[in-house]
Amino acid sequence: xxxxxxxxxxxxxxxxxxxxxxxxxxxxxxxxxxxxxxxxxxxxxxxxxxxxxxxxxxxxxxxxxxxxxxxxxxxxxxxxxxxxxxxxxxxxxxxxxxxxxxxxxxxxxxxxxxxxxxxxxxxxxxxxxxxxxxxxxx
Length: 138
Prior knowledge:
Blueprint: E1 18-19, H1 24-34, E2 38-43, E3 46-52, H2 53-57, H3 69-78, H4 81-84, E4 86-87, E5 92-93, H5 98-108, E6 112-117, E7 120-126, H6 127-137
Parallel strand pairs: 1-2, 5-6
Antiparallel strand pairs: 2-3, 3-4, 6-7
């Protein structure tokens, strides 16, 4: 495979998203149900942020203190997606090459990047997608 090819050949195109007005519970449930770690946050069709499972887990005391599930619930009730998400995430364009995206992952230490086509969310690419690509093709 040619590393100059568009990232669109390996990105996830059927992207699970979360609307900014949904709850953190909804976001966490979606991630667990679909076994994903990143959700683009949208307002209508506009990408406004990205939320990771790590961002949500930072609100949890469950792994530190046994029996603190009520504290976790209270924390999730107090916070909104907008409080926890990363606003204005770095994006890449569908025309970016595989090599360009790999370089971004290396230099900027991202684990997921929303892929846009103009103003529209077209997909998402993760480090896992890149590793699978390289293992399969090299």
